[in-house]
Write a structure and sequence with these properties.
Blueprint lengths: L8 H14 L11 H8 L3 H13 L3 E4 L3 E4 L4 H25 L2 H20 L2 H19 L2 H18 L7 H19 L3 H37 L2
């Protein structure tokens, strides 16, 4: 693992573990083994413990007395709660962005729009959502509200974890996501903040429904395997 001087060691460890959770390498209910991670990354167990506290704030893990850190469950109820909260936070974020952007910001947003269009054309779902989150990061920088930033950054890993379940969705659903997201940027650029927030809610509902559908299929597959293994 190559460490970056500009980011604390515990934050880098947290990012490393979070990517394993987001991509499904570490699954729900799995225990995070401090000693294994410390040896794997050649860091102290104290640094790993600090990283786990960071991850707890992002809802990717739960820390239990005497049991330690465990990858958090991803249930339909939790997905619903995540997106209920995200609608409010991201709605506020794009609404404030519409009030604060400057000329150089508009150029950046137009470039991102072109990149989103390109990812849809290529059918690259993962890069499409990566650019969506890049856009939200840009909005966060424009708004520059430390309270909103704290909530946004703590929600983002769970949002990324949820969208990873949708990577096998169809090109048609990707096109629909773009059709829903494009008005968000358009409304921001004409400074229609309330409209931007409403469009953001529509996009979040669409992504939530895709995640719930994907989660239901995944749970059905797990149940089928479990029943087969008991025979």
């Amino acid at each position: 693992m190559a460490f970056q001087a500009s980011i604390s060691l515990s934050e880098q460890i947290a990012k490393h573990i979070s990517e394993q959770i987001i991509t499904g390498e570490l699954v729900e209910g799995e225990r995070i083994q401090e000693l294994r991670i410390a040896k794997e990354l050649d860091v102290s167990r104290g640094s790993v413990r600090e990283a786990l506290l960071i991850l707890q704030r992002t809802y990717l893990i739960e820390i239990y007395p005497r049991r330690g850190a465990v990858v958090s469950e991803m249930s339909a109820q939790q997905v619903q709660s995540l997106f209920d909260t995200s609608m409010m936070i991201l709605g506020a974020l794009v609404q404030r962005t519409s009030e604060r952007w400057r000329q150089h910001d508009s150029e950046q947003m137009n470039t991102l729009m072109q990149q989103l269009d390109e990812q849809v054309r290529l059918g690259d779902i993962e890069k499409f959502y990566d650019h969506v989150f890049l856009f939200l990061h840009t909005c966060n920088e424009i708004v520059d509200n430390p309270y909103l930033t704290d909530i946004f950054e703590n929600l983002l890993p769970s949002l990324r974890r949820s969208y990873f379940l949708t990577l096998n969705t169809s090109r048609r659903e990707l096109q629909e996501a773009f059709v829903l997201f494009r008005p968000v940027i358009d409304a921001i650029l004409i400074r229609k903040g309330e409209q931007a927030a409403l469009f953001m809610e529509d996009f979040c509902r669409h992504l939530r429904n895709l995640v719930l559908d994907s989660l239901a299929r995944m749970k059905q597959i797990e149940l089928a395997w479990a029943q087969r293994s008991r025979r």
